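INFO  loader      accepted 1 record
INFO  loader      residues=116
INFO  predictor   begin
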Amino acid sequence: MAETLSTQNEKVSNGRAGRVIGVLLLVLTSYLFGLARGRGEKRMSDYASLHTQYDQLDQHYSELKLQYDQILRDYPVLSAQYRQMQAQYAELKAQYDRIEHRTRTAQTKNKAGIED
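INFO  predictor   done
INFO  writer      dumping tokens
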């Protein structure tokens, strides 16, 4: 009967150890699932933040692209206006230079006539 008592004590002891190990495994598993969930939530938060930044950059790019396209459409017109104004300036400058030359020539003749 002594063997049966020690056998029973071992079974009880093994049962307690098994339950303790089982509880520890449950706690460890729960902890690991919590860590995984926390990491997943952090990744989702990071993803949401990056997605928001991407959307903002995409919006900014779209606005800049519209401005660029408008400038590209306006460039030929503005370039033609610039060339036209350049030609007008050259023509006016030539007229001014001729008038200035005549004025100087007339002043020189007047001075020469006065001195004579």
